[in-house]
Structure prediction request, 476 residues.
Amino acid sequence: MYSVNAFRTLAFCAALIFSTLSAVPGFAQNKVVPQNQGQLKYSYAPVVKQTAPAVVNIFTAKTVRTSRYVPLFDDPFFRQFFGDNVQRAVPGPEKKVQNSLGSGVIIDADGLVVTNNHVLEGADEIKVVLHDRREFGAKVLGKDERTDIAVLKLDLKGEKLPFLRLSDSDQLEVGDLVLAIGNPFGVGQTVTSGIVSALARTAAGVSDLNSFIQTDAAINPGNSGGALVDVSGQLVGVNTAIFTKTGASHGIGFAIPANMVNRVVTSLVTSGNVVRPWLGAKGQGVTAEIADSLGMPRPYGVMITSVYDGGPAARGGLKVGDVLLSIDGKEVRDAQDLRFRIATLPVGGATRVGVMRQRGEVSLDIALEAPPEIPKRSETLLRGRHPFEGAVVGNLSPKLADELGLEHEKTGVIVLALDRKGSAARLGFERGDIVLKVNGVAVNSVHELLVMLRETASTWIIRIERGGRESNIVIR
Prediction:
């Protein structure tokens, strides 16, 4: 028997579920509080039956080189002479097949599957297993490392499959009920429920472009690439990462919003790569202090700190000191949100931005253009008796910066690769270093760097930018 308090608690929970399920066809549209125990039997089962067949398991295999184990090194007599710390494995030509698993979502009846890029990383063989246990081979149509999205095409031979429609993830709200569907730990397809815990989250090391959906629906290893669906059965996100200290779910999972998924998938299917528009401006998020000084009712938006000469923002009238508040009517929270909003837009046409200027608001139309490769990258392998021997360098441009995940407005010379046996690698240079100055002289191009390196010097003081921080490398 239920106690009165227990019944009230269950009634409240059921009311919450029932009110949300009312949006699903077949459920009553009027929101009512359950009147008896029979009404507490409402279930997510209709949504699961609708969505689960479109979520697949992805099995990959890749060949890796391994070291050969030498049993002799474990022999006590041998260790009397060579010690306990001797390396017990030696490099060898042995190869081993490494298997991994993940999940994916069918988003088109012809067998188009979206998953995470990291699920397919290094895979030599890909097998997709459907909800009903049928297996298909798959071809990779494209990958986008920056958003961790990949697209597969199943070899169906004309068959049609159940699929999920992508929702407008901008309509999602904190507190909305969601289901996570995937294959955690390889136990088989599993459904977990929760709510949208937060929106516009960033997850360090996952992507510099995403504005993640955070959910407390249990997500574990193997769920990567699986579906996050709402109670109307639409795909609101693709599960991609978790915050964990043990490797298991702690109730903090992240999903790529459907709007970003849609943008990337469309580009990969049509062209095999993703070309994102660039704004041609950068700025900082509006803090409480900045908002107070500008007379803003609350802190949001991006204060523009620099505008790229001749870029879309400059031509559209955006100026240093402007506060960019919205894009196509959608509020911009901060600089990360600005990058996300721009990245979800297609190249071509224009976007309307709302700007606060001198305590008034104006609207500007800014062209959506691909970042140009100006100047040409001029990749050059540096040889000679100087600190950069063995480094491959190139001129930064908006296009190259986009490829490398840097701010489009970065300029100068960047280290693109290193010969591990060269001087540059031994002296501590790293891929991605931006060379700012050599012996106090600014470096603006590969040509200028080549001229500087022809001169001899007893001491080299090279100023670089690494990870957003500037430092000197001194060679004597």
Notes: The chain is about 20% helix and 35% strand. The chain has five domains: 4-42, 56-154, 169-271, 281-367, 380-475. The longest helix spans residues 4-21.
